[in-house]
Amino acid sequence: MDDLPGLTPIPHPTPARPLLGMTVLVVDDSLYACDAMRLMCLHSGARIRRADCLRSARRHLQVYRPTVVIVDLGLPDGSGLELIAELAGAAPRVTSILASSGDDGAEAAALAAGADGFLAKPMTNLGVFQSKVLATLPAERRPAGPRVARSDEIHPDPIAYRDDMVHASNLLDDTSEGPALTYLAQFLGGVARAAEDVQLARAAEALGAPERGGTALGARLAQVAGLVQERLGNRAAM
């Protein structure tokens, strides 16, 4: 049962639109990553809803019953592993729970928490996305007959990347140390890798290095702030 069960018949998936009739809740703080998911769901026939944090996701789940929940592991108010464990232990359980992350070792942690599958970031290949989701669904929710695997590469809207830079800029204004700094480095690194912004990805990785501190930290923050402002001013190519 999806969204408002019993009010309208659920259409059956087809080989061309293998997720037809399903609702996907994407829990991710990056608008750029969410736009990629939006496009892949659109091409697959699924409806999409978005939550940008654990609190928002829980509010959604009090009202709606999605078929698939895709949870990013790095969220502003906690780990996505918390939500995965909650969903895995709930009754009735959502049909499919997938984790998403670009961090090494994240897949094992997600599966241990109860996820049915894992999407490695950046996820931009439509065929891979469809196959990963379908592998977690029961046979009756999959399209009947042969299905041609698609190899389309999805390209999110660059405006969504700029919106993520606005968010990062706001975080920089309020960040100096501690968990907020860890989250900033994680957020920027994930977004930059998804957009293949190598320079910013390296700066974010350095910002999150264990040996950060003192003058070195100030220099790293200044470097990241400068790169973010360049992207906001469209002076650096993605």
Automatic annotation (TrEMBL):
PANTHER family: RESPONSE REGULATORY DOMAIN-CONTAINING PROTEIN, STRESS RESPONSE REGULATOR PROTEIN 1. PROSITE patterns: RESPONSE_REGULATORY (PS50110). The keyword Phosphoprotein applies. InterPro entries: Bact_response_regulator, CheY-like_superfamily, Sig_transdc_resp-reg_receiver. The keyword Phosphoprotein applies. Keywords: Phosphoprotein. Residues 23-136 form the Response regulatory domain. The modification 4-aspartylphosphate is found at residue 72. It comes from Roseovarius aquimarinus. This is Response regulator. Gene3D superfamilies: 3.40.50.2300.
